[in-house]
Design goal:
Length: about 800
């Protein structure tokens, strides 16, 4: 029954229940649980950010108590309880929940272990720098405002959102009869996709996936296969398999340990630990001797110690099978479009966001155009007054009241009432000559701005260019490397089948001149251009199952699993090798090697600048190590310069700054143990002479001086000699130069070489760019250097030797042969 103006109106129970439930369901869907596709925010999140901006909690301001934010939000815009508001704010500030946090928290905001945040009276908050990009231009009539719950205030219907927050940070929510679960993505990848859509409006989902590789979770981890990603992007629904990143380490006693450094998204580390403990107590995991959480400021480290003789790959497979170290993420790309819930494909999601930004840019331009016209109108009046300054002053002095003065000015200058008011309000200092020039300059600027804005509003192409420029600026300011690695075309690693540590995926590893290390998305070699600010110093072919060895000039080594390197589009976007390896300050990298974990054949050949050489059996090389280790004893005044892999039957060539080169068989250098010193490889000519290059003897030797003169000569012109001799002359040094060879390398004529200078300038060229001449002859200029600039190094694309390796993915579980001393 309904009570209407004192009358009782009978209503059917079924009809009333249907209507009431529908109203409740629509309220939950639209006003509580689902995000708006335009800014990717639920109403409570949007109200929190808007409130924080209103009360001045910006990145350049001090933190304020979270209780203040919660109270203001609840009182003004969201009267649904403080706990809901605080929980939403905390989540936006957790770096393990949001890929790019929108709130900067101070205090206990919870942890990935599952610990709850401290009470709101203890924590503090303010907006992050990226959150300000969500709110920018909101004061320029860019979005609609709607009344709050009691019609006393107005709140934004959506935020301008200069970046696609829905795709970048994702969203989760459960409404009535529907739910959403959108994963986070990499900011740079999503922006690249939208820019591609701007350039090519008919772009397909497949084209967009060339930019957006897949979800990029804040907790990292692995995604197995791409089929679920393709399905989700095409239809709005799909499933992806997530797996924790694992490393195998070997102890001094011969035991193995499994170390998990990243876990699947939205999985509590504590729940994983409790599950493993439960499995051990139930005797379902009998090979585990200890479990430790060694996580700290340097990152996550969950260590599983194994018993003597245990098969680590088999145990790892069991952990993936029985615990949440492997989990499934169901993607449901459901969001509000024009107030209605819709399941969106990747293209539809980006298209709606792009339409929103077009509307924002249009409204912002109209607002700025109106303000510019208003200001130009006033400036016109001021300039008219300055042109007849004496008459204006006399008119104002003769007028008895302000109203009379305004009317007289309008009649005298033929101006409007607004212009007359501006003249009457003009300060005396603006009568100075410099102030007049400032008014004229400002007027010209306003006229130019008006023309620009008018042209912008008349052209959709220009508006799209503005959006692309703004997005690119966001990417440059806030973009970062991908954290989650996508491996394999399909999830081909059944958890009850072949053991599977790290899937094999071809890649290229780069280390820049400033120490930024990363691996490429593509399987093709990275291109090096002259405009690179941080060109690569090392480029080498690799796979995600390899171990990367960094070897320093003082004879020490450190390891990094290749799959843990950040994926980058540009080498300079990588991370410092000091942040990823055990090397800290004081270690300069001399060589970088990518080696399969189970390789036990071949040798490492070491060469120092002082002419010392050493050979180390590959089987003696330690595996994945948490600390640095000594690979060669280097003399005090010497430096390790080159390390490369040899087969045991190769010949090597060493070249000095005084243009002497020696070629000898590697077998003349007897293998020694790890940490031992070297023996003489070449006799140096004098005090300033030193080795400037070493390589395996190939078809040709490419030589370049410090002033850019290069030449290439056949390797057969370098006779094979005995070790420790003086060698033969490799180049006639020009008399008008500094007289030193800068670098050499050995390869074939169709190979590519990159010349590096001490100004970090790189020039890529084919080996055939240098003249092919006899061994003692001089060459010709291949790069122009001037002033204090000089050539210092050569970079080649280090391709993998053809190892006869058995990858871990091919290793059977039962009766598996376990990793060697180099671990996995």
């Amino acid at each position: 029954m309904e009570f209407t103006h004192g009358k009782v109106v009978p209503v059917g129970l079924e009809e009333e229940m249907r209507r009431s439930y529908l109203n409740f369901a629509m309220y939950v869907i639209v006003d509580r649980a689902l995000p708006d596709v335009r800014d990717g925010l639920k109403p409570v999140q949007r109200r929190i950010l808007y409130t924080m901006d209103e009360i001045g909690l910006r990145p350049d301001r001090p933190f304020k108590k979270s209780a203040r934010v919660v109270g203001e939000t609840m009182a003004k815009y969201h009267p649904h309880g403080d706990s809901a508001i605080y929980d939403a704010m905390v989540r936006m500030g957790q770096d393990f929940s949001y890929r790019y946090p929108l709130v900067e928290g101070h205090g206990n905001y919870g942890s990935i272990d599952g610990d709850p945040p401290a009470a709101m009276r203890y924590t503090e908050a303010r907006l992050s720098r990226l959150a300000m990009e969500m709110l920018r231009d909101i004061d320029k009539d860019t979005v609609n405002f709607v009344p709050n719950f009691d019609d006393s205030l107005e709140q934004p219907e959506t935020l301008p959102s200069r970046f696609p927050n829905l795709m970048v940070n994702g969203a989760t929510g459960i409404a009535v009869g529907m739910s959403t679960n959108i994963p986070p993505h990499n900011l740079g990848e999503v922006i690249d996709a939208i820019v591609a859509m701007i350039d090519h409006p008919d772009v397909t989902v497949q084209d967009l996936m060339k930019h957006i590789k897949g979800p990029d979770f804040p907790t990292g981890g692995l995604i197995l296969g791409r089929e679920g990603i393709k399905e989700a992007y095409a239809t709005g629904r799909g499933r992806v398999v997530l797996r924790a990143k694992a490393e195998l380490e070997e102890t001094n006693t011969g035991r193995h340990r499994i170390v998990f450094t990243e876990i699947p998204y939205q999985i509590s580390k504590t729940s994983i630990i409790e599950r493993i403990v439960s499995l051990v107590r139930e005797d379902r995991l009998t090979a585990i001797s200890d479990l430790r959480d060694e996580s700290g400021r340097d990152g996550m480290r969950l260590t599983v110690e194994l018993k003597q003789g245990a098969q680590p790959l088999k145990v790892l497979n069991q952990l993936y099978k029985y615990t949440q170290l492997q989990s499934t993420f169901s993607i449901q790309m459901l969001a509000l479009v024009n107030g209605e819930p819709r399941t969106l494909s990747l293209k539809q999601c980006l298209r709606v966001y792009l339409d929103h930004r077009l509307e924002v840019v249009r409204r912002r331009s109209e607002y700025e155009l109106a303000r510019a016209r208003e200001r130009a109108h006033i400036l016109e009046g001021l300039l008219k007054a300055l042109d007849k300054l004496d008459e204006v002053i006399a008119t104002i002095r003769k007028s008895r009241t302000v109203d009379t003065a305004r009317k007289n000015l309008i009649d005298l200058l033929k101006i409007t009432e607004i212009q007359a008011d501006a003249i009457l309000s003009m300060q005396l200092r603006r009568l100075a000559a410099l102030e007049r020039k400032a008014i004229e300059d400002e007027y010209k600027e306003r006229i130019q701005l008006i023309k620009y804005l008018e042209g912008l509003l008349q052209s959709q192409v220009k508006m799209r260019e503005v959006i692309a420029d703004e997005l690119t600026a966001i990417k440059q300011a806030y973009g970062d490397p991908r954290r989650t690695i996508i491996v394999g075309d399909t999830a081909t690693a059944p958890i009850n089948g072949a053991a599977f540590l790290v899937p094999q995926e071809n890649t290229w590893v780069t280390l820049t001149v400033t120490g930024k290390i990363g691996r490429s998305y593509e399987t093709t070699p990275p291109k090096v251009t002259a405009d690179m600010k941080e060109p690569p110093r090392f480029i080498l072919e690799s796979t995600t199952g390899h171990t990367l060895y960094l070897l320093s000039t003082d004879g020490y080594g450190a390891t990094i699993p290749v799959h843990q390197l950040p994926q980058v589009n540009n080498p300079q976007d990588g991370s410092s090798y000091r942040d990823l390896s055990a090397f800290k300050n004081g270690h300069e990298i001399a060589a970088v090697l990518s080696i399969p974990s189970d390789l036990e054949t071949g040798f490492l050949f070491f060469v120092t600048e002082g002419g010392e050489v050493k050979r180390l059996r590959m089987e003696d090389l330690p595996g994945l190590m948490a600390n640095v280790f000594k690979v060669m004893d280097i003399e005090k005044e010497d430096r390790l310069g080159w390390v490369f892999i040899t087969s045991g039957e190769d010949e090597v060539v060493l070249t000095t700054a005084e243009a002497q080169a020696i070629r000898f068989k590697e077998s003349e250098v007897r293998p020694t143990g790890l940490g031992a010193g070297g023996m003489r490889g070449i006799k140096l000519a004098g005090q300033r002479d030193r080795v400037i290059g070493a390589a395996i003897a190939d078809e040709y030797l490419w030589v370049i001086t410090d002033v850019g003169i290069a030449k290439v000569s056949p390797m057969n012109e370098y006779p094979t000699q005995g070790r420790a001799g003086s060698g033969v002359i490799t180049m006639k040094l020009p008399q008008d130069s500094k007289g030193l060879v800068a670098a050499v390398t050995a390869a074939r004529l169709d190979d590519t070489v990159i010349v590096l200078t001490n100004k970090n300038r790189a020039k890529s060229m084919k080996f055939s760019a240098a003249p092919l001449v006899k061994r003692p002859n001089r060459g010709d200029y291949v790069i122009s250097v001037s002033g204090k600039e000089e050539v210092v190094a050569l970079v080649t694309y280090g391709r993998q030797p053809q190892f006869a390796e058995a990858t871990l993915a091919d290793t059977p579980v039962n009766g598996a042969s376990e990793p060697s001393a180099k671990g996995a």
